[in-house]
């Protein structure tokens, strides 16, 4: 797939692919996610999450686990993600780690970086609802001097996003390079998204007709329950044989 044609105008480090999966596949995935045993979900303040295909050690080494069938069989998202070419330069040439997040309307995720454990590409599939993802840069002014908004290390964040994207259900967004390694991303904790406040989204030309109508018509879109599957390649993977961990590969 030549995914360069999905490049978001104004950023050659972000790609937006609408309708990456079909409605039937979306329904199937949401049903399978609903069957995820409750103990696997971790309740966070603003959302719930499940890591799939293993978790990371404190040294950021992946302890591999079998992928759930909805990732590796039908609809075989891993093969489909590989086919985009986005992971062509990553150590395993495909994602080996997927985190499932659940957001109720009104929930979001604070601006953050995904960090150095992963090769700097993340592919995010949205299911069930749209959302709006903002990308931020660190502020050049001294820590916390403008809005008081800081990351976990006390570095000040410029509150004006450098890029905002409407993520439609069934879409895939791929974030790479400096946007991954040097910037932050987050989702405001809102019940609906108002496209009438002059809040431009950079991917308007890449949206489906329905999404474009909402943005161009400056309408408000209520959020529903959204699931996201964030797919990455963890650089270092432990060599696990019969439950024992031997070094890394
Ligand atoms: O749900 C999303 O689209 C973003 C999630 C995210 O940024 C993360 O899990 O690191
Ligand atoms: Fe993230």
Q: What is the 3D form?
A: globular
How many helices in DSSP terms?
5
Name the bound molecules.
Answer: 2-oxoglutaric acid, fe (ii) ion
Strand order, main sheet: write it out. Answer: 1-11-8-15-6-3-2
- β-strand amount: 25-35%
Distance between the termini: 28 Å
Structural class: alpha+beta
Q: Residue ranges: pLDDT <50 for 5 or more in a row? A: none
Largest sheet: 7 strands, antiparallel
What is the H-and-E element order?
Answer: EHEEEEHHEEEEEEHEEHEEEE
Total count of strands: 17
Average pLDDT confidence is 86
Query: What is the rounded Rg?
Result: 18 Å
Descriptive overview:
The protein is α+β, with helices and mostly antiparallel strands and 249 residues long. Helices cover 15% and strands 31% of the residues. The protein contains 5 helices and 17 strands. Strands 1-11-8-15-6-3-2 form a 7-stranded antiparallel sheet. The radius of gyration is 18 Å and the shape is globular. It binds 2-oxoglutaric acid and fe (ii) ion (FE2). The site of 2-oxoglutaric acid (AKG) has 9 residues, from strand 6 and strand 15.
Which terms would index this structure?
alpha+beta, 17 strands, 31% strand, binds 2-oxoglutaric acid, binds fe (ii) ion
Task: Note the topology.
Layout: E1 14-17, H1 23-34, E2 42-43, E3 48-52, E4 55-56, E5 61-63, H2 69-72, H3 77-84, E6 97-103, E7 109-112, E8 121-127, E9 131-136, E10 163-167, E11 172-176, H4 177-181, E12 184-187, E13 192-194, H5 209-216, E14 220-222, E15 226-232, E16 236-241, E17 244-248
Parallel strand pairs: 5-16
Antiparallel strand pairs: 1-11, 2-3, 3-6, 4-5, 6-15, 7-12, 8-11, 8-15, 9-10, 9-12, 13-14, 16-17
The protein binds 2-oxoglutaric acid and fe (ii) ion (FE2).
């Amino acid at each position: 797939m030549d995914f360069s044609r999905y490049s978001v105008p104004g950023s050659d480090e972000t790609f937006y692919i609408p309708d990456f999966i079909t409605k039937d596949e979306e329904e199937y995935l949401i049903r399978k996610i609903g069957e995820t045993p409750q103990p696997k979900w971790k309740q966070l303040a603003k959302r719930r999450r499940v890591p799939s295909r293993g978790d990371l050690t404190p040294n950021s080494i992946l302890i591999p686990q079998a992928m759930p069938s909805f990732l590796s069989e039908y609809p075989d998202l891993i093969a489909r993600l590989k086919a985009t070419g986005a992971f062509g330069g990553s150590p395993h040439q495909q994602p080996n780690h997927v985190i499932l997040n659940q957001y109720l309307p009104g929930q979001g995720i604070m601006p953050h970086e995904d960090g150095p454990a992963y090769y700097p590409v993340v592919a995010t599939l949205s299911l069930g609802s749209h959302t709006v993802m903002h990308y931020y840069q660190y502020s050049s002014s001294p820590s916390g001097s403008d809005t008081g908004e800081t990351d976990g290390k006390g570095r000040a964040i410029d509150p004006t996003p450098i890029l905002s994207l409407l993520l439609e259900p069934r879409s895939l967004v791929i974030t790479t390079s400096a946007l991954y390694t040097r910037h932050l991303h987050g989702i405001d904790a809102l019940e609906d998204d108002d496209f009438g406040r002059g809040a431009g989204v950079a991917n308007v030309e890449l949206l489906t007709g329905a999404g474009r109508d909402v943005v161009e018509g400056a309408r408000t879109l209520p959020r529903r329950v959204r699931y996201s599957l964030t797919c990455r390649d963890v650089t270092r993977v432990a060599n696990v044989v019969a439950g024992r961990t031997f070094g890394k590969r």
